[in-house]
């Protein structure tokens, strides 16, 4: 068995072929093994969950009385940390003869989050890299059936061993095109893929004005997750009160954000929303969420033209809403009374909320402490939300504040070159 493992350690990976764990088991024990695949459980559907390799090894060796003996089968160089890591390894369990655990195709990921309240530290801290594996395979003799079933269930449901891939909210922009020298009308299309980061908000009530805000928040989230729904949500308040910050958080509350069309609409484009050039785009992308920032210039009752208001009314509660099913989320800095009263009628207005211009001293200090502000004694008066976030220490990293990707570009590029070299 030792000779076989030594040979495998020095071998090169054949394209599309895994380590022959089953054959190694057969060579050692002389019997064909039973096999079970174990993946980490998740409370949410369609969520990518992976085992954290270091936590998994610690759990097996320390909690089950298993000796710390394992064989690194194959290693790769991690281009970021400049260290070798085991991307395929076998765990031999000598204290329980007849069990072999295979960790196949381990990989580095970034920006994953803990699946429990336990903090899992990155294996490579500068870029928050974690070494993970999607599944483990346990080969065993039939007499260990009870033990293996118990072990696999405990590993799968121990959320302190797993990491979760964050949901991605991708914002699209509206582009305009027109052929030169052509009589064809202007056409619109969706362009860009802006990945919205999920900000860390420990307590919504502290940041946004108390328990009354929770009722509004739950109402908005319920509305966003309804299928074939339309309507209008208005968020207003002074600049720096946290409207955009909250929208970033809100987009990640959509259960199927990756399948929704989240479309950013500039304020000056509201007048074109129901025009013949833009309607085909909205029909093609039904059940979209339109996000309009700083819309007071187009929605004010003082404007001589009310076409922008009429467009929002038609899309949120008019005949067009029956066929297009568009949800509209608009923000503005002016007082609510400055808007056209037609926008506030029940039926089309799902919710509206005025963000407080400042947080009182107690809430300001509580928020500052939660986001990593060390000099709390400097807060001696009510402050806007933006001012509090500006006080954060430079070394504080906000949760999910990295680029949204499964692995960094350097790792991905290295993997591609390595696989190409192996195929040669």
UniProtKB/TrEMBL annotation:
GO MF entries: ATP binding; ATP hydrolysis activity
InterPro entries, per the entry: ATPase_AAA_core, P-loop_NTPase
Domain ATPase AAA-type core, residue spans: 233-356
Domain of life (superkingdom): Eukaryota
Stated name of the protein: ATPase AAA-type core domain-containing protein
Organism of origin: Rotaria magnacalcarata
């Amino acid at each position: 068995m030792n000779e076989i493992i030594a040979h495998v350690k020095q071998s090169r990976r054949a394209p599309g072929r895994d380590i022959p764990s089953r054959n190694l088991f057969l060579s050692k024990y002389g019997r064909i093994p039973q096999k079970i695949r174990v993946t980490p459980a998740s409370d949410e559907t369609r969520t990518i969950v992976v085992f954290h390799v270091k936590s998994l090894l610690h759990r097996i060796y320390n909690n089950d009385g298993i000796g710390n003996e394992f064989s690194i089968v194959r290693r790769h160089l991690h281009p970021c940390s400049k260290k070798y890591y085991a991307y395929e390894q076998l765990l031999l369990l000598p204290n329980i003869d007849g069990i072999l655990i295979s960790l196949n195709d381990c990989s580095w990921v970034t920006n994953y989050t803990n699946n429990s309240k336990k903090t899992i530290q990155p294996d490579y801290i500068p870029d928050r890299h974690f070494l993970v594996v999607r599944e483990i395979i346990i080969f065993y003799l039939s007499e260990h059936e009870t033990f293996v079933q118990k072990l696999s269930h405990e590993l799968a449901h121990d959320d302190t061993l797993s990491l979760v891939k964050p949901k991605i909210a991708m914002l699209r922009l509206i582009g305009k095109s027109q052929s030169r020298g052509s009589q064809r009308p202007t056409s619109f299309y969706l362009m860009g893929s802006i990945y919205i980061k999920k900000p860390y908000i420990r307590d919504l009530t502290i940041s946004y004005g108390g328990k009354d805000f929770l009722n509004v928040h739950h109402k908005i989230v319920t509305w966003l997750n309804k299928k074939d729904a339309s309507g209008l949500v208005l968020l207003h308040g002074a600049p720096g009160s946290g409207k955009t910050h909250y929208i970033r958080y809100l987009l990640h509350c959509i259960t199927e954000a990756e399948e929704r069309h989240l479309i950013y609409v500039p304020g000056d484009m509201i007048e074109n929303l129901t025009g013949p050039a833009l309607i085909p785009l909205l029909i093609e992308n039904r059940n979209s969420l339109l996000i309009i920032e700083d819309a007071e210039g187009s929605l004010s009752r003082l404007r001589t033209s009310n076409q922008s208001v009429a467009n929002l009314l038609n899309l949120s509660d008019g005949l067009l809403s029956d066929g297009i099913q568009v949800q509209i989320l608009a923000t503005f800095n002016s007082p609510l009374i400055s808007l056209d009263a037609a926008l506030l009628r029940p039926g089309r207005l799902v919710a509206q909320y005025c963000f407080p211009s400042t947080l009182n001293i107690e809430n300001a200090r509580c928020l500052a402490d939660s986001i990593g502000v060390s000099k709390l004694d400097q807060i001696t008066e009510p402050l806007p939300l933006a001012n509090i976030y500006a006080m954060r220490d430079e070394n504080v990293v906000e949760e999910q504040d990295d680029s949204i990707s499964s692995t960094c570009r350097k790792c991905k590029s290295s993997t591609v070159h390595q696989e190409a070299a192996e195929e040669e």
